[in-house]
Amino acid sequence: MTKDELLRLTNEVLQDALEEDQYVLELILTGLKKKQYHEKNSYINAILHAEGEFKNGQFTIKIPNTPIIQNALTIVHGGITATLLDSAMGGLVHHILPPDKTVVTSEMKINYVAPGVGKELVCTTDIIHKGNKTVVTEGRVYRDDGTLIAHSTASFFIINRS
Amino acid sequence: MTKDELLRLTNEVLQDALEEDQYVLELILTGLKKKQYHEKNSYINAILHAEGEFKNGQFTIKIPNTPIIQNALTIVHGGITATLLDSAMGGLVHHILPPDKTVVTSEMKINYVAPGVGKELVCTTDIIHKGNKTVVTEGRVYRDDGTLIAHSTASFFIINRS
Amino acid sequence: MTKDELLRLTNEVLQDALEEDQYVLELILTGLKKKQYHEKNSYINAILHAEGEFKNGQFTIKIPNTPIIQNALTIVHGGITATLLDSAMGGLVHHILPPDKTVVTSEMKINYVAPGVGKELVCTTDIIHKGNKTVVTEGRVYRDDGTLIAHSTASFFIINRS
Amino acid sequence: MTKDELLRLTNEVLQDALEEDQYVLELILTGLKKKQYHEKNSYINAILHAEGEFKNGQFTIKIPNTPIIQNALTIVHGGITATLLDSAMGGLVHHILPPDKTVVTSEMKINYVAPGVGKELVCTTDIIHKGNKTVVTEGRVYRDDGTLIAHSTASFFIINRS
User: Fold this and answer.
1) Thioesterase domain: which residues (chains A, B, C, D) (predicted)?
2) Chains near C (3 or more Cβ pairs under 8 Å)
3) Which of A122, C76, C127, D37 has the most crowded Cβ, counting Cβ within 10 A?
4) Which of B89, B105, B108, B111 best tests the C interface by mutation, with the highest count of C CBs <10 A?
5) Cβ contact C109–A109 (<8 Å)
6) Beta strands A51-55 and A58-64: pairing type?
7) Chain B neighbours, 3+ Cβ pairs < 8 A
8) pLDDT band for position B87 (50/70/90)?
């Protein structure tokens, strides 16, 4: 679509927009701007408004809980919790590897223990084992009231950055 | 933000938009329209343009592979593959339960076996075990060239629909 | 202990032996003989009286359900079900690799779906993915009445046989 | 088999016994005596010479590394590591439940990160989440040199003791 067509489509969407739709569009547009300004390296991270921080050997990612990431029951979609866990555990592994190495996720297991509600989700991460070929990690996702909502372990293959 | 402010923000985003940014905005806006027309029951499914089908005891979901769901290496984000698996396995379980029951995912394990590339991803699903309190399922995600990219097993708790 | 001391200890154990104890000792002694005759390659397989068979691309292992493998509730110990699954999935992978390669289990996940009771357990196996470095497999354990008691997926690293 | 037949069979096994066979028989017979004296509640725990301890909210089990639990490569069988993890995590859960409740394992995932060698294995355990219907736990198995060999998470269903 051309830029004109996109503007027209935005107008159409706004005609019938509920307050929630407007909020979602605001989140998406501000996300896209962050991507354009290279504050985010992927659309998915931009749209999720993920904020990562590496401190004291831990890598943490926070995302606001918004209608974008909720299922039909207004609870955070388990796949988004998985996205947060995969990003945060992968981010931790990147931080402990030399710059010529990167990783791919080889497996991940998640236990969902409480519903994802509240204002934001925070994912904390730890290394379980660092080998020559693989790294095994642990991640936990908390609500802003401190309740654990999910626990995960994952394995990452170390590969050469091409 | 008001509708006027959102239109102005759309204009701003379009100023600096690369072709890819325009494509992403088009996908999001057409997704939001589907949500407004109740063709999709959540923003995440609308933005992913997920298409589900129940046939021969199997529930299948397809999503196009677009820049929205790719990580910085232009490979589908493992969390999105997880989202697809969780949605499809959960969808299958809903189809075999009476209408007064619903489910929550209690655990999910995913093996990632090949990179998510190509035009679309298809997730097929099967029941491993149907109990009184839980259902255990299996899901597989394929590329359009038929390559398996991920395998998953998951458990769902059966709960009363409130 | 010397052979004489071992005979004396056997006598002691038999003094207080219940019928079940005698049955367990019989299973162990006949297992040890199989190990001595090289019919079994490990004590654990000998004691479990595991019988493997490779047929039509599948590797299957059967074990009799005996008091040796039951927990205090006379149900098969989940760890023994795991032992059966690990042995059978690993056995399948060995069958599809060249003779100079072997494997180590890197991860295994098991869903326990019904209690392990009855006369014997049978584990069937399948390949999910065969890569250059890893193989991902699936295993299912059934009772002799056909009920599925456990489902597992596992990953194996391919290594050079030293 | 009668007690006389069992003694004769023991004699036969001892005829051809290697030193290792004698050691294995000693471990089994001393294990069976512990079972007869009700020091162990199952044959498998008796044969493994498992020693559990509950201290500071943690439940720990130690087992000696003996030829009984090793695979053909003289490394501890992954299924025995699973048995140790399942027993220890299940034991921890029993300790935090009221006496009229018990649990069954519903799922377990294990990451194997180093070979099981050395003199003994120690499994430590923690609670990840305690709910009304399920408990999610974490377990780690260490060698006597302090190396982590396996990490596990598991879910247990709480049921009424019959």
Assistant:
1) 75-149
2) A, B, D
3) C76
4) B111
5) yes
6) antiparallel
7) A, C, D
8) very high
What letter would DSSP give residue C73? T
The half-sphere exposure of B102 on its side-chain side, counting CA atoms within 13 A, is: 7
* Tokens (6 digits) for A117: 């509600």
C103 φ/ψ angles, rounded to the nearest 5 degrees: -135, 155
Torsions phi, psi of C20, nearest 5?
A: -65, -40
Residues of A with CB under 8 A from a CB of D: 109, 111, 113-114, 128-129, 131, 136, 138, 148, 151, 153, 155
Chain B partners of D106 at a C-beta cutoff of 8 Å? 134, 155
**In the predicted structure, residue B162 carries a pLDDT above the cut 80:** no
**Chain C environment of A134 (Cβ under 8 Å):** 106
Domain regions of chain B by residue span: 1-47, 50-160
DSSP character at residue A54 = E
One-letter amino acid for residue D38 of the chain = H
**CATH entry, D50-160, from 3.40.50.12160, 3.40.50.300, 3.10.129.10, 3.20.20.70:** 3.10.129.10
pLDDT, mean over chain B? 95
Structure tokens at D57: 């909210």
CA closest to C31 among chain D residues: D13
Asked if D79 contacts C79 with a C-beta cutoff of 8 angstroms, the reply is yes
Q: What is the percent of chain A where pLDDT is above 70? A: 100
Burial of residue C55 (number of CB atoms within 10 Å: 0-12, 13-18, 19+):
exposed
Q: Tell me the longest C-alpha to C-alpha distance in chain B.
A: 56
For residues A9-23, average pLDDT? 94
Q: Which pair of structure tokens corresponds to residue B120?
A: 């679309």
Match 């890569």 to its residue by tokens: C131
Q: Which alpha helices (DSSP H) does C51-121 contain, by range? A: 78-96
Nearest to C79 among D12, D67, D82 (CB): D82
Q: Do A155 and C109 touch (CB under 8 A)?
A: no
Reported confidence tier of residue A57, pLDDT bands at 50, 70, 90: confident
Distance CA C3, CA C9 (A): 10
Check pLDDT > 90 for residue D57. Answer: no
Helices (H), ranges, A37-116: 43-48, 78-96
User: What contacts D42, CB < 8 A, 6 or more positions away?
Assistant: C70, C71, C72, C77, D35
